[in-house]
Specification:
Elements (H helix, E strand, L loop, with lengths): L2 H26 L9 H4 L2 H14 L10 H8 L1 H13 L14
Helix pairs in contact: 1-3
Protein name: DNA polymerase
Organism: Mesobacillus boroniphilus JCM 21738
Length: about 100
């Protein structure tokens, strides 16, 4: 196994361990408030794991209409992830409103 694959396993393990810790804390104390979560959202390992999860589901485009294949082929995953990271870190990301729900 090469170093890049080892790094990916480590990132996945870190992200899953972080989620597990938060889950257990919430279950242990249901009234607990989590005040400092925003900085966890844009952690590169968390973002990458979320992206991998979205890719595996192979669903339709979101409110922006972009498809996963379009992002990967036309834009590039790394560039896309870096831009999301910076927008979140600099608090410039504002999700689009959903105007209708399709059943």
């Amino acid at each position: 196994m090469n170093a890049r694959k080892m790094a990916n396993y480590t990132n996945i393990d870190k992200a899953q361990e972080h989620w597990k810790t938060l889950y257990l804390c919430a279950k242990e104390s249901p009234t607990r408030r989590f005040h400092a979560l925003y900085d966890k959202i844009y952690r590169p390992d968390i973002l990458w794991e979320a992206w991998q999860s979205v890719k595996q589901k192979k669903g339709s485009g979101g409110v922006d209409g972009q498809m996963i294949e379009q992002i990967v082929l036309d834009y590039g995953e790394r560039k896309f992830m870096n831009e999301i990271f910076l927008e979140l870190k600099e608090k410039r990301y504002h999700p689009r409103l959903i105007t209708s729900i399709i059943d």
